[in-house]
Design goal:
Radius of gyration: 22 Å
Largest sheet: 7 strands, mixed
Structural class: alpha/beta
Helix content: 25-40%
Strand content: 15-25%
Length: 434
C-alpha cells in the first residue's frame, strides 16, 4: 500500500488498501464474496501486521527487559519502538503508554490501582486516587460492559457510589444532565464513541465538567482511535484505553494511556516479575511506569504487530481514514433508516457519529437477521454487543449491527442494504426499501 494523507481516499487508493487484506478476497457460504461489516467487533489485518509478527518470531524472538544477549536487545528495542509508534499516533509520550492484554484490562488496571490506593498502597503519593463512601464515579448509559462493570466493582470495594449520564431517545449522551457531575465526583469514565449507537460523545463538555470539580477522566477510545484523528493530550483526558485488534492490529494487545504524573503515583495492579526494583523476603519496591504495570513475560509479538498497524494508519493519514469512513457512514445510516420496518438505534444522520449502525428489524430476532445476511455472505454482529443498558434504554433487548472499516466499499454497503431490505419478507412479514 502506498498512499498519502488526503481529504479522502481515491478509488485507486481504496483498491490498493484492499489488496493489503487477503482475507477480503475469500468467499463464504457457497462461493459468495465476503462482505465484512463487523469491524466494530474486530478489524481485519493487513499483511504488514501478520508479516511483522511472523518476522519477530522467526528472527528476533526473545523476552524483553531481562536478557543480556543480542536477541534480547533486539526484542526490547522492537517492544519499545512499538510503544513510541502508538504514542505518536495518539499524541502522547511513550512513557505514558502501558501495554495490557486488551482495553478491558486497561480499564480494570485503573480501577484496581484506585482500589489498591484506597487500601493504602502507594502511600501518600497515591492519596489522590483513594475513594470512599460519599465519593462518586460517573459513567454513561451508553457504556459497554468493559467500561461499566469495573466501576461497579470499584464502588463495591470502596463504598463509592456509581452514577450515570443518561442518553436521549436518539442514543446521544444527554448533556442537559451534566449536573450529575458534582463536587463528590472523583472519576468520570465514558466512551469516545458508542459501539451501539455510533454517536460521538461531547468530550469537551464532559471533560470540562469533570475537571471543574477535580475529577479524573477515563476515556474509552476503542471505537475512535481506529477511525478518527485522536489527540489524547488535546482532549485533556487523564486516562484512555483502546485495543489493538480493532485498529488493524493483533488480538491480545491493549493500550492504557495515563498522564505521566498519575502513572507515577499509582500503585501496581498485577505484581510479580519484571515490574520490580528491589525484592527482599520482607518487601518489594516497584519499577517506574510503564514497567510498573507490565508484570510477567510480555506479549512482544503483538506489540510488534501493533507497531505495524499504527504505522499503516499513520501512513494512510487518520484524516483520510475519517473522511473515507464518513462517506460510508452517510450511505449506511441513511440506507438502513430508509428501509421499512427497520429502526436505527442511534442518530439517523451522519453528524457526530461513526459508521457503527445498530438496528432493529420489526418482528425478526437479531440472530435470524444475522443468519439471513450470513447466507448472503454478509458478516455483521448480533446480540447486545456487551452493552445491555443502552439497549434497554432504547427499548430492545438486542440488535443487529453493521460497521465499517477503512477497507469497506460503497458497493459492499449496497449489497448489505439490498439484502437487509428483504429480511422481513423472507420471514413473511412484508417490507421493502422505503
Amino acid at each position: 500500500m502506498t498512499t498519502t494523507a488526503a481529504a479522502s481516499l481515491t478509488a485507486t487508493e481504496l483498491i490498493a488498501i484492499r489488496e493489503d487484506f487477503p482475507l477480503l478476497e475469500r468467499t463464504v457460504r457457497g462461493g459468495r464474496p465476503l462482505v465484512y461489516l463487523d469491524s466494530a467487533a474486530t478489524s481485519q489485518k493487513p499483511e504488514c501486521v501478520t508479516d511483522a509478527e511472523q518476522d519477530f518470531y522467526l528472527r528476533r524472538n526473545a523476552a524483553v527487559h531481562r536478557g543480556a544477549h543480542q536477541l534480547a536487545e533486539e526484542a526490547t528495542e522492537a517492544y519499545e519502538q512499538a510503544r513510541a509508534a502508538v504514542a505518536g499516533l495518539v499524541g502522547v509520550d511513550a512513557g505514558e503508554i502501558v501495554w495490557t492484554k486488551n482495553a478491558t484490562e486497561a480499564i480494570n488496571l485503573v480501577a484496581y490501582a484506585m482500589s489498591n490506593a484506597t487500601l493504602g498502597r502507594g502511600g501518600e503519593a497515591a492519596a489522590a486516587l483513594r475513594l470512599g463512601p460519599g465519593d462518586e464515579i460517573v459513567v454513561t448509559e451508553a457504556e459497554h460492559h468493559a467500561n461499566l462493570v469495573p466501576w461497579q466493582e470499584l464502588c463495591a470495594r470502596t463504598g463509592a457510589t456509581l452514577r450515570w449520564l443518561g442518553v436521549t431517545d436518539e442514543g446521544r449522551i444527554d448533556t442537559d444532565n451534566l449536573g450529575v457531575i458534582n463536587e463528590r465526583t472523583r472519576v468520570v469514565a465514558f466512551a469516545h464513541a458508542s459501539n451501539v449507537t455510533g454517536a460521538i460523545a461531547p468530550v469537551t463538555a464532559i471533560v470540562a465538567a469533570a475537571h471543574a470539580v477535580g475529577a479524573l477522566v477515563v476515556l474509552d477510545a476503542c471505537q475512535s482511535v481506529p477511525h478518527l484523528p485522536v489527540d489524547l493530550r488535546a482532549l485533556d483526558v487523564d486516562f484512555a484505553a483502546f485495543s489493538g485488534h480493532k485498529m488493524l492490529g493483533p488480538t491480545g494487545i491493549g493500550v492504557l494511556y495515563g498522564r505521566a504524573d498519575l502513572l507515577a503515583a499509582m500503585p501496581p495492579f498485577l505484581t510479580g516479575g519484571s515490574m520490580v526494583e528491589v525484592v527482599t523476603m520482607e518487601a518489594t519496591t516497584y519499577a517506574p511506569p510503564p514497567q510498573r504495570f507490565e508484570a510477567g513475560t510480555q506479549m512482544v509479538a503483538q506489540t510488534v504487530g501493533l507497531n505495524a498497524a499504527a504505522d499503516y494508519l499513520a501512513e494512510l493519514g487518520m484524516s483520510a481514514v475519517a473522511a473515507h469512513e464518513a462517506v460510508l457512514t452517510e450511505h449506511l445510516v441513511r440506507g438502513v433508516a430508509g428501509i421499512d420496518g427497520v429502526r436505527v438505534l442511534g442518530p439517523t444522520d451522519a453528524a457526530d457519529r461513526l459508521g457503527v449502525v445498530a438496528f432493529d428489524v420489526a418482528g425478526v430476532h437479531p440472530h435470524d437477521v444475522g443468519q439471513v445476511l450470513d447466507d448472503a455472505g454478509i458478516a455483521i454482529r448480533v446480540g447486545h454487543h456487551c452493552a445491555q443498558p443502552v439497549h434497554r434504554r432504547l427499548g430492545v433487548h438486542a440488535s443487529a449491527r453493521a460497521s465499517v472499516g477503512i477497507y469497506t466499499t460503497h458497493a459492499e454497503i449496497d449489497v448489505f442494504l439490498e439484502q437487509l431490505a428483504g429480511v422481513r419478507s423472507f420471514f413473511g412479514l412484508g417490507g421493502s426499501r422505503g
